[in-house]
Amino acid sequence: MLRSLVLTSSLILGLASSCSAGLLGHNVNYRRSIPHDGQYIDVNSGNNATEWWWVQAGGPAEDGGAPPSLHVTFYQGYPLTPLRDAAGGPNAPEFYIVLNGAFPNGTVFAYTLPATSSSVTNAGEAVTGTWAGAGVFHNSADLSTFTVALNAPELGVTGTLEIQSNGPAHFGCNTTASPYFGSAIPAGAELNAAEEIFYKQLGWATSQPGGPARVDVTLSGSRLQFTGQGYHDANWMPQPIDAFMDDWYFFDAQVGPFDLSAVYAAITDTTRVFNTGFLEESGSILQNQCSVQGSRNEDKISITPYGLAVDEAFHMNVMQGFILEYTLKNGDVYSFNLTGQSLVLDQPIYHRWVGSAVGGKVGGKQYTGVAMYDWLNPSLTPYNP
User: Fold this and answer.
1) Alpha-carbon distance 162 to 213, whole Å?
2) Would you put residue 294 in left (φ > 0), alpha (ψ -120 to 50) or beta?
3) Which of 144, 171, 174, 333 is deepest in the core (most CB within 10 A)?
4) Which residues fall within 8 angstroms of residue 351, CB to CB, at 6 or more apart?
């Protein structure tokens, strides 16, 4: 549910607020001097922390088929408690790679590749992540190229993904100094335990906000090969998401000369709703802000869901699309319609769509492109029709 976002959001079920905020980062070591895409915290069996490097690529649907996509995440720890429980609880592998997506014929896939170890090293700004027995990623020193090499032939997975960045690396709050959301805290606000984690200890660094992508992987003998658009970022936090957040949407699209992303987050036990808006045109940033919803009249984003549907597999309400509207500091407005065409990840607490996007400056030329967006809902009550 998009809490108090727009009138249409009332169609979705209300959120429970039973998540416990837990301990604030106990046994977590935060590193200080690191490159943009490097290792920010130490994840180990003695804490509940998690850090991950996320990369995705999607292409347009052709000839009545589905939009092809590949999503790859290099994990240390578990972002959701139910995922750790399902993977074996205290015996779950600490390091692993998750990939999922869809072939052009609509067939979806999902793989988990356990790793025997994980290391993230750097030479200046260049960063290399090695998940032994599963795969490797590399970010170039100028952050222009991000590559993934998957190498788990015993699990049927090999191949590569590469992104060439269209624009500069960034953090989420229009700053080059901090990857945290603290600047969005209203002046004088008292934070609850969940907000303390969200605003001060959940990190987000985007090194490839969008750009051309090439995918060539073999999955259980079937080759997935396409060119499209890609995106890469990294996140880290001292506790699983379900310890401090009820609802999270992440949006990413490439539409003509525009690369855009947005986040909507409903934090546990508070009425304050958080969002971010990032928009660049031909490599120039038009907006990069984070804020509490309703706190601004300009330099803001509005996120409007539409098209209520039912996920029959889990009897849950889902939205078929979203309108993202960016209002710049100078009053210019850009609007984009993101429509989910393929549900490539369908779980009770995690959905992911790939589809189409159309939009541009209001009153100006309109473009078409590729959209990808996720919904994490760790506290949503299932829908019973």
Assistant:
1) 5
2) left
3) 171
4) 311, 318, 343, 345, 374, 375, 377
Q: Calculate mean pLDDT across residues 34-54.
A: 92
pTM of full prediction above 0.70 = yes
- Model confidence at 17, pLDDT cuts 50, 70, 90, reads very low
Query: What are the chain's domains?
Result: 7-13+44-376 (2.40.370.10)
Residues 6 or more apart in contact with residue 92 via CB below 8 angstroms: 78, 84
Answer with the residue of higher pLDDT: 379 or 312. 312
**Amino acid in position 88:** G
Beta bridge partners of 102: 69, 108
Cα separation, 265 vs 204, whole angstroms: 13
CA pair distance 179, 193, nearest whole angstrom = 20
d(CA 183, CA 175): 9
Residue 18 CB-density burial (10 A; 0-12 exposed, 13-18 middle, 19+ buried): exposed
Which run of H or of E encompasses 251?
Answer: strand 245-255
CA-CA-CA-CA dihedral for 251, 254, 258, 264, to nearest 10: 0
* 145 CB-contact burial (10 Å; exposed 0-12 / middle 13-18 / buried 19+): middle
* Cβ neighbours of 324 (radius 10 Å): 25
Percent of the chain exceeding pLDDT 70 equals 91
Structure tokens at 254: 């490439």
How would residue 55 be classed by pLDDT, with cut points 50, 70 and 90?
Answer: very high
Q: Hey, what are 213's tokens?
A: 């992508």
* Cα gap 223→237, rounded to integer Å: 35
Contact predicate 68/228, CB 8 Å: yes
Helices (H), the chain: 81-86, 193-201
pLDDT > 50? residue 18: no
Position 174, amino acid: N
> What's the confidence (pLDDT) of residue 184?
94
Cβ count near 185 (within 10 Å): 17
